[in-house]
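Kindly inspect what follows.
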Amino acid sequence: MTKAAGKTSRATKSREVILDILFEVLERDGFVHGSLRMALEKYQYLEKPDRALITRVAEGTVENLLAIDEVLNCCSSIHTAKMKPVVRTVLRMSVYQILWMDRVPDSAVCNEAVKLVQGRRLGGLGGFVNGVLRGVARRKDEFLFEDWSLRYSMPRWILEMWEEQYPKETVEGMLRAFLEDAPTAVRCNLSLASMEEVRESLEGQQVKAEPSPLSPQVLLLEGYDCLERLEAFRRGWILVQDAASALVADAADPKPGSTVLDVCGAPGGKGLHMADRLKGTGQVVVRDLTEGKIRLVEENIARARLGNIKAEVWDAREFDGRWQEKADIVVADLPCSGLGVIGKKPDIKYHASKERIESLVLLQRQILTAAARYVKPGGTLVYSTCTVSRQENEGQREWFLENFPFSPEDIKGRMGTAVKEESMKDGYVQLLPGRYPCDGFFIAVFRKERE
């Protein structure tokens, strides 16, 4: 095989993997985060540039899907909704490369797209694919969208909801942040290694590791290929956890010997952080709904090698009388719309709906009703979500205070100096992408009244 032929083979293979990922996500309602992870595990033999290409095109196509479909509908005689699913997927991933990836020649994108449809026994449509993509390439300077829904590929109903809740500049800051490349945030397990030891290990493997401005225990990683191959990860020194999520334990402020119950805790990041902060004292119990989720927690516990934490299956909606007023701290990081993590999981914005949010609000209230009964008098309940929906956040806080014997806990000073919001004196904070370098995240802390 010639060198040129080898390059073509590598390029085609990478795009075949991308096609499979995107077909699963866009045509079968899969999730890009999970589909991408499984594909990269399956094709570990691919070289780092190929794996990087797969990641960027898969994520980028999903992130910009509304704009991509608008472009296709401008350049194709057949509407995207009426295209064959494989052709539609090939065109979508190819438009992303033409419009968002300057290093990939347009002609190469067109040629590889034709090869892909031919490889899926749709060779008769190769001319159609080639013609549409060459039309996109000729007209690409025209596609400068003023409409935010298209510019940022955000469903219009989400934009309208946010514009009712936040100033316009805040909304655009979030939209921009969601489309920016972000480093991987990891929290360091200080029970096993110091920050200096963790950074030395990472830098020894040529990984750039910078401290997060939001949390002294969180590092921002860039330049690695596979997280599982990092020595610090294998040793349990680091766990993937966004800085906003890591602030939950800081807001809870556990004391030595505390008993902590995390009612919806998979994959265990917040519970492990609590256990780390307790320095071998107390007890942390992490619960979740299924055996599969609890296995993930147990894997992380085993890797972190912390003896004061365990995991168990429990439906958080069901009250467990064994825990009545037994917990010093209850963590209720509850199922939510996830609109704060669109930057990491872009398909969330296409699966969300107003009806889904309304059903989640009811679920959250059901779980909070049970969780409130586990807190000792004088103890703490922490409610958190990874969303930026006021219905699920500030609205739930107000509902909880109206219906349960709790009062807001002042959390000023618990999160260092980087997070400064007036609401913290009233026991809550809404972290917004664009304003802070983290996911969109809500934290509210309540103190149970003494009898």
Remarks:
- The CA atoms of residues 268 and 297 lie 5 Å apart.
- The domain at 184-240 is CATH 3.30.70.1170 (Alpha-Beta Plaits).
- The radius of gyration is 24 Å.
- The chain is about 45% helix and 15% strand.
